[in-house]
Amino acid sequence: MKLTSLKAAGAAVAGIAAGAALLLSATPASAANPPYDGCPGWALCLYQDGGGAGSKAIITPPAAGGNTKIVRLTNTHFLNGQPADNQTSSWLNNSQCEIEFWDDPNGELHPSDLDFTPSWNWGAKGDYVGTSKYYDNDRLSSLRFYCP
Fold this sequence. Notes:
Structural class: alpha+beta
Strand order of the largest sheet: 2-1-4-7
Largest sheet: 4 strands, antiparallel
Strand content: 25-35%
Number of strands: 8
Low-confidence stretches: 3-30
Radius of gyration: 23 Å
Oligomer: single chain
Mean pLDDT: 80
Shape: globular
Order of helices and strands: HEEEEEEEE
């Protein structure tokens, strides 16, 4: 019986040592996500920071078949709870939809076009940090989808 308990104790110590080695070699929980990370198919993802970094907001376009949809960012929040209105610095389009990006602060009838991505352009990206459109993250407030 003593030999069996020694083997069990040895196995337990080996298991603890292996577990500790895994814990110490794991990546820290605070590591940043890769750029444009976690955007599902058939979605538009808005990112709070440039280059597809920071918190994101996931917006589901309408179904294909000629459907349109307007999304006001005053009603949209990043996953960290902050509003996406006037705070979007980059985006990724994982849908087949055409999207117009507007400065439309109060739902006015005549929005200003800030950006555009054509339909059938999966993976199209926009980045307003360090580009000539750097000011758009302080103006982007609504979107118009057209999904052929």
